[in-house]
Amino acid sequence: MKTYPLSDNIKQFASVFKENGFCLYIVGGAVRDYLLGVRSSDYDFCTDALPDQVMSMFRKVIPTGIKHGTVTVLFKKESYEVTTFRTEGAYSDQRHPDSVTFVRNLEEDLSRRDFTVNAFAANCLDGQIIDLFDGLSDLKNKVIRAIGDPVKRFEEDALRMMRLARFCAKLGFSADPATKAAAAKLCENIKAVSNERIFDELSKTLMSEIPTVGLRIMEDTGILSHILPEVQRCRSTEQTKVGSSNVLDHIYNCVDASAKLNYSLTVRLAALLHDIAKPVTMTVNQYGFLRFYGHDVKSAEMAKDVMKRLKCSNKMIDDVCIIIANHMVRYNENWTDGAVKRFICRIGKENINNFSGATR
């Protein structure tokens, strides 16, 4: 296996631990990204030294999360977040451990993590990469698989079910069948997670290269129906004029188009929510054609409620709703200067770059 490339600063940092009889590892995403050929400088360190022992080794240490064994060390003009090896007690709220126990064994620490591809460790003295859960095989097979029993992993922390979707979208991987089945079995537990954390994971999924990889996993497992029932209901609404058999597939196409064009999170959220009122505005005209009159304005109203529920900022709510309320506007070369000025006044000059025709 490859060895992880270490800077001189990290080697010197690790040597302080060695001199005091301890070890230091880089764990998680940075090692995974290196094995995938992706550069990352977002390091998470773990050690067998207790927090007070780490604090005694360095002059400048901030007890950022000392309750859970995490301190931030300032060393040679760099800051390093270091966490003591630990195991965790029961998760009564399906989100946070009731207790944390510090341990001296790397394997015990790695075994509590979510997925095999996030459980790599690299020795900070020589760069040797440690793979105790066959994560390298899962990287090669492009699969996200829970460590150990997936039901137990998701019972411990319900947000991991959304992380499954997010990592599949981020890496372009598929979900291990047993892991996906466990998420479907426990999908209702996502209700125990705060709306702020749900929005954070949803945002990360939307900002991936192909967001609908993750969104479809959320739909397949039932998570989408719990976190965004307004979006899920679009699956049962047919439409015929925009190249999709139903509204949800159309929404998915729009979300992926906004990602392909590298639009901001604001636009991607607008793409996700822009047609959520179609199920409640659908009518059938005298010729048998489906119509959704006023769905743009109604969708903006519903999107506002959804985003308030998810604890979005007022600015983001306003920006997303402006896009949605005006997504049926179609510019053409016959517009007069006055018409252009009126449109700009209506949506705001600051929103011009956000206004996307991808939602139509």
Q: What this model shows, in words?
A:
The chain has 360 residues and is α+β, with helices and mostly antiparallel strands. It has 18 helices and 13 strands. The protein starts with 7 loop residues before the first helix and ends in a 13-residue tail after the last helix.
Describe the protein's topology.
Elements: H1 8-19, E1 24-27, H2 29-35, E2 44-47, H3 51-57, E3 61-65, E4 70-75, E5 78-84, E6 86-88, E7 100-102, H4 106-111, E8 121-123, E9 129-130, H5 135-141, E10 143-144, H6 150-156, H7 160-171, E11 174-175, H8 177-185, H9 195-206, H10 211-221, H11 223-227, H12 229-232, H13 247-260, H14 265-273, H15 278-281, E12 283-284, E13 290-291, H16 295-309, H17 314-325, H18 337-347
Parallel strand pairs: 2-5, 10-11
Antiparallel strand pairs: 1-2, 1-8, 3-4, 4-5, 6-7, 8-9, 12-13
Helix pairs in contact: 7-9, 7-10, 13-14, 14-17, 16-17
